[in-house]
Structure formats: structure tokens, C-alpha cells
Amino acid sequence: MILQTIFFYLFSAIVIASALMVISSRNPVHSVLFLILAFFNAAGLFVMLGAEFLAMMLVVVYVGAVAVLFLFVVMMLDVDFTELRQGFLQYLPVGALIGIVLLAELLIVLSGWVFAPDVLANPVRPIPELNQLTNTEAIGRLLYTDYIFFFQTAGFVLLVAMIGAIVLTLRHKPRVKRQVIADQVGRSQKVELHSVEPGKGI
Amino acid sequence: MMDLATLPSLTPFLPELILAVGALVLLMIGAFGGERATPLVTTLAVLLIAVAGLVLLFKAEDGVTFGGAFVLDPFARFMKVLALIGSGFAIVMSVNYVKREKIARFEYPVLILLATLGMLMMISANDLIAVYLGLELQSLALYVVAASNRDSVKSTEAGMKYFVLGALSSGMLLYGMSLIYGFTGHTQFQGIATTLSNGPIAIGVVFGLVFVIAGVAFKVSAVPFHMWTPDVYEGAPTPVTAFFAAAPKAAAMALFVRVLFGSLGPAAADWQQVVTFIAVASMILGAFAAIGQRNIKRLMAYSSIGHMGFALVGLAAGNEAGVQGVVLYMAIYIAMTLGAFAVILFMRRKGQMVEEISDLAGLSRSHPVVAFIFAMVLFSLAGIPPLAGFFAKWYVFLAAIEAKLYVLAVIGVLSSVVGAFYYLRIIKIMYFDEPAGAFEPMTGELRFVLGLSGIFVILYVVFAGPIGQAASVAAKTFF
Known about the structure:
The complex is a heterodimer.
Chain A: H1 2-24, H2 28-49, H3 52-76, H4 81-84, H5 86-110, H6 117-121, H7 135-146, H8 148-169, H9 181-185
Chain B: H1 14-33, H2 38-58, E1 63-65, E2 70-72, H3 74-100, H4 107-124, H5 128-146, H6 153-184, H7 189-198, H8 203-219, H9 228-235, H10 238-263, H11 268-289, H12 296-317, H13 320-346, E3 348-349, E4 352-353, H14 363-366, H15 368-382, H16 388-402, H17 406-432, H18 444-458, H19 460-476
Antiparallel strand pairs in B: 1-2, 3-4
Helix pairs in contact in B: 1-2, 1-4, 2-3, 2-4, 3-4, 3-10, 3-13, 3-19, 4-5, 4-10, 5-6, 5-10, 6-8, 6-9, 8-10, 8-11, 9-10, 9-12, 10-12, 10-13, 11-12, 11-17, 12-13, 12-16, 12-17, 13-15, 13-16, 13-18, 13-19, 15-17, 15-18, 16-17
């Protein structure tokens, strides 16, 4: 038990610290690397909750694909981050003031706040008992059976995002020379095949 | 072997299914046919919307499906017909515009179809997740079409502004939803309503409700979340603006009604004051801010903010007459807006679109019929009897008085008087100012839309019976 507590605090402390580093480090590449660290530790937290499948997915999908994509974007688009941050200090006092006011309001209103005990008793999609189903099966059932409508709609949202990106950025340039493989390998009338005897020409 | 899960019933979902599959097919036709396929895709898109509308009216059955996430009831049916009408006419009105401005692309009708699909899902959403997904599907497509004239700085700015502010409002909406889920334990509307009516309403739910209202108010462009409207209306290509002004407003208002009455009904006392404030602020801002406008698209933006305020009066009333008023208001508002935008799309001189109100001077002499119908539409927007707009306002104010919201009704009437000023000013410019030169002849599809809108607005008394009845059936859904 004590070991679990130690690991919980270790993982969560690193997640929070690296998340802070993501937004505060000067070099964007370092930001992405800290993001990866945050993902790894969040995966550790998932393992401790007994959600191994989610943990592995987090590593595979987010670290393996998304974070690497981020790295590419950061490196390939030469975004001048120091220039982006120029207004930052100027607006910081106003932003911080609004943030503090909002936080204070939330704290004042919610200080006496407890979740209603019966709420925890009747959540809308109770997680199936994990000793009866494997992790993967439980997620699959939720995603592809119960939430099939949401899943498909989310697919449409992504499709719209893709169409949008293409509509707004793809330009057909008339002067670009493209390879036409059919023309290249196609036989026209002028090409004939001869079997050339050895030692002689045509 | 695992037994196969039973398939959810698809009969309430048929129109959406047709739109979704159709949009994908059209996308393929466009992708393989290239730019030459644009007219074909546009025609098919309009047909598809018509088919979806017919199926919705005659084939789809009322019911709940997908584990309660999707519901088709008389209210959803009425609002969906409005959204389909708005989208269909938006595509029709764009045909010649995009050709002349050389921005014709097959993606445009496809994106409008996908936005319409999102709207139908929003209107039918019976679950917080479904609300969010429908809303995002619609908004994402709208951001793209707003920026679709990508060589124009204004259009790009409109798309960017709409996107950033829209993302912010989606964030607020999600935050509110998470609070509501956290305090009730349900995402489905019935579950939320039962939990709320069973016990005292937790402060967290009220917080969530305020955030959700803020998120949806952004989508209907109600004050104080209206900042994006004038810039987006002005910057987006005009047929896109016509689209923005009609269908998405109806869908977002339907969502507003369903979230407030369907799930947060027991917390009515809490949201009524918020909605009342939003309604008052929208009506007043819509009336006063439009006075100084010289660009007619910006004027229509403020006009739509004001009209949303009037429609919200019905919502604030919180009774059956109020919902009926909202539903009727949206129907009449869509008819009027489409007519007004048909005229705005017609304002073209020497091969250039013109957008200043002063450009309309002398329209009564060069195009007397257009000027007459436009004048009627403007009188109707101002709310002068016996035109359609008068009845729209009459229903919502009646509902407010029934709910004893006298102050709200009085403010509404006063701001509609102020608002009448700028509509009448346009009529004065059209009829009495020095002519500014004739516009190019009106194209067929604009005549068609303006004609239909004119007939509806002028002869509303004839249609009032059946439409009123349909609206009252729709309103009964929640009571």
C-alpha cells in the first residue's frame, strides 16, 4: 500500500512539473520532450488505476504518433516563439488579475461543495467490473456498441477537419510538372521491338 | 461466441443517414470529377436536402434511438425542416455568386451538407455528448466556409475570428457540461431532469448551466457573446453570410430550447433570469448598434442579434406559449432573412458586388418589383402588421405577458420601435434618394428565393393557421 502511495505521488508530481515545463520552457523542442514525459507519467497513473489498455494506448498513440508529429511541426514550421511571446508580459498583469478574480469566485462559491453521495452511486455508464471483463473488451463495448453514434459522429467531425484543411490550403499550381507514369511506360506506335542478332546492329 | 448486439432502430435517424451517406458520395464525385463536377455536385446537394426533408416529413418515425442519445419528436421535426430549408436555399443562392467571384469549388456544397448534418444532430440531441458532437460538426464546417474565399483577407479574417471565438465558446460549453455531469451523474437529458427534480439544485449545476447557456448563446449570437457576428457577416462571402443568418440560428435556438426545457427544466427559476438578461441585452444592442451601420451585411448582423433577442423572450417566458413563440419566430425569421439576402446578393454593379446601404438608392425606379418586395421584407423585419414579422413578435410578447414578464415585454416593444428606424431608413433610401445607378439584372435563383420570401411575408395571414398548428404541436413536446 505504501509503495502505491509513493508511486502515485511520484507520477503525479512529475506530470504536474513537466506540464509546467511544457508551457514555460523557452525552446519549443524541449516543450515537446516535456510533453512526452508528462504522457509517460500519466500512463503510469493509468496502470495504477488498473487501466492497462489505456496506459499502453497513451504511450503508443500519444508518444508514438502525436508527440512525434508535434516535433515535426515545431521543427519544420519556423515559428518565432520569442516574437509570439512579446505581448505576453504586457498582458500578464491583466490576465493574472482576471484569473485570480475568477479563481477566488469559484473558491468562495464552491468551498462548501461536496459531490452528492447518490451521484457517485448512479453514474450514467458504470464501468463494468474489471474482474469479469478485460480492459480492452470493456472499452470496446462502450465505444463500438453503446457509443457507436458518438463514435461515428466524431469520425465525421474529423472528416470535416480534413476537408477544411485541404480546402483552405491546397492550391493547384498550373506550372508544376508532374510525372505521368502512364505516358512514360505506355507504348506508342513509334516504338517497335526488334530482336537484334548478336554481333550485328539494326 | 459472443451474441451480436442488437442494432439500434434507424427509422428516426433516416434523414441524417441520407445526408451523411449522400455527402460522402458527393465528396467522392467531386474528388474524382475535379472542378468540372462542381455544378453536378451542387445540384445533387440541393436534391439531397430536398430528399432528406421529404423523408423527414413522411417516412421517419418519432422515437428515441442509439441508447437514448438521439430523439425525433414533433419539435425536432419542425426545427429540422427549418434548418433544411435554410441550407437548401443557401446553396441555391450561391450558384451564380461563386461562379462570378471565381470561388466555385465542389467542397462548398459538401461542407454545407455536413454542416446541415451537424445541425440535424444538434436538434435531435438528447444527450450532452451528442449536443457537443453535433455542434462541433456544424461549427467546424461553418468556420471553413466562412474562410472559403481564401484570397480575400476579410474572408480569411472572418474564418479565423469565428474559429478562435467558436473554440472558446465550445470550451465553455464543455466545462458547463462536465459540471452538470459531475453533479447529476448523467449525460442523458431525462436522467439530468429526474436527478434535478428529485432534490435541491446543487450550486455546481447552476454553474454548469450558466456556462452551457454562455456556450449556446455564442452560437445564436446573443449579447454578450455577439462580438464575432458583425465581422464574420461582413467578411464571409455573401451567400455564406445568408447561410449563417438562417439555418445555424434555427439549429442553435432549437438546441437552446431542448437543453433548457428537456434537461434543465427543473432548474427553470435559475436559468430564466439569465435568459431574460440575454434577451434584453440582445434586443437593445440589436436596435441601437444597427443605427450607425453603413454596410448592409453588418446591418443584417445587428438585425439578427436583435431578432435572436426577441426569440429569446419566448424562451425566457418558460411556458408552452413561449416555446411555440420561439418556434414560430425562427420560421418567420428564416423566411425574412433569406428574402433580405436575396436582395443583398443581387446588389452587383459593373461586375462588382456592392454592400453599402447607399448603393440601394433609387432601386424603386430601376427595379420596382424588387424594391417593393424588399420593402415588404423590411417592414416585416421591423414588425409592422399585417406582415409575418409582426405575428412573430406578437407570439413571443404574448407568451412573456402570460408569464408575467411585463418589463421584458415592454422593453421588447420599445426596442422594436427603435429597430424600425433603420429598416425604414433603407426603404426611404430606396424610394426617395437620388438614384445611384441600376444593378445588373437579377438572376433566376435569386428571383425565386425573393419571390417565395415575399409571398410568405405578405400573405402570412393565409399560412398562419397550418404553421401555427404545427408549432403548437412542436411546443407540446416539452409539456
